[in-house]
């Protein structure tokens, strides 16, 4: 039992140290030795918990996404049935605002796609957000909407949200860019509402 607790504490410390180093310096500039030292361990302890720097990075990114998803669910959450485009756009803005913050931006938007590759990066995003976005789309389109249309709209909206986050994260004024992109997304979301 004590060994399991020690192992969990080591993992937690390494992930916290890695998060801080990746966030402030970027993936390429950080070594395994630095992560281990910042966590208060030797390199051997790192390798006992993680096979590589990429693996620890993936877990850090996954935790960043999980944190954003939890924050989104605590705040606006998934849109209920019959939700308005404005409510869904506000939920999207909450996500984008979280993604462009210093604790997430470098890891999620700059290094994530490069280190993990586009497909794995999107899989992690989908794990945390696809259900939320699908619920929002279903709320906008109504439960009578064709399942294939809901699937298509969900995929398209997930792509649009990520593009908004990437573009906002790279902008000179990320917060203003996020607001502008989400205002445009609100207009697009209006088109998902069923007609009279």
Taking the sheet with the most strands, its summary is: none
Question: How does the overall form come out from the CA principal axes?
Answer: elongated
Low-confidence region ranges:
76-81
Number of strands: 0
Mean of the pLDDT scores? Answer: 90
Helices and strands, in order, run as: HHHHHHHHH
List keywords for this structure.
0% strand, 78% helix, 2 domains, mainly alpha, elongated, Arc Repressor Mutant, subunit A, 196 residues
Notes on the structure:
This protein folds into two domains: 1-50, Orthogonal Bundle (Arc Repressor Mutant, subunit A), CATH 1.10.10.60; 57-190. It has nine helices and no strands. It has helices at 2-25, 32-39, 43-49, 53-74, 85-99, 105-116, 118-141, 147-170, 174-190. Helix 1 crosses helix 4. The longest helix has 24 residues, at 2-25. The termini are far apart. Mean pLDDT is 90; it is low at 76-81.
List the helices and strands and how they pair.
Blueprint: H1 2-25, H2 32-39, H3 43-49, H4 53-74, H5 85-99, H6 105-116, H7 118-141, H8 147-170, H9 174-190
Q: In a nutshell, what does this entry contain?
A:
The protein is mainly alpha-helical and 196 residues long. The chain has helices spanning 2-25, 32-39, 43-49, 53-74, 85-99, 105-116, 118-141, 147-170, 174-190. The protein has two domains: 1-50, Arc Repressor Mutant, subunit A; 57-190.
């Amino acid at each position: 039992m004590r060994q399991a607790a020690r192992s969990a504490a080591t993992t937690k410390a390494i992930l916290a140290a890695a998060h801080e180093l990746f966030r402030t310096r970027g993936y390429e500039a950080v070594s395994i030795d630095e992560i281990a030292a910042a966590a208060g361990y030797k390199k051997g302890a790192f390798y006992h918990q993680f096979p590589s720097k990429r693996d620890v990075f993936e877990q850090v990114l996954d935790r960043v996404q999980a944190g954003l998803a939890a924050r989104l669910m605590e705040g606006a959450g998934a849109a209920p049935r019959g939700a308005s485009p404005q409510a869904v756009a506000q939920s999207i803005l909450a996500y984008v605002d979280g993604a462009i913050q210093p604790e997430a931006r470098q890891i999620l938007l700059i290094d994530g796609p490069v280190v993990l590759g586009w497909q794995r990066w999107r899989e992690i995003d989908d794990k945390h957000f696809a259900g939320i976005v699908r619920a929002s789309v279903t709320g906008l389109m109504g439960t009578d909407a064709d399942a294939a249309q809901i699937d298509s709209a969900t995929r398209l909206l997930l792509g649009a949200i990520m593009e908004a986050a990437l573009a906002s994260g790279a902008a000179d004024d990320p917060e203003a860019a996020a607001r502008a992109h989400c205002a445009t997304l609100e207009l697009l979301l209006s088109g998902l509402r069923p007609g009279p």
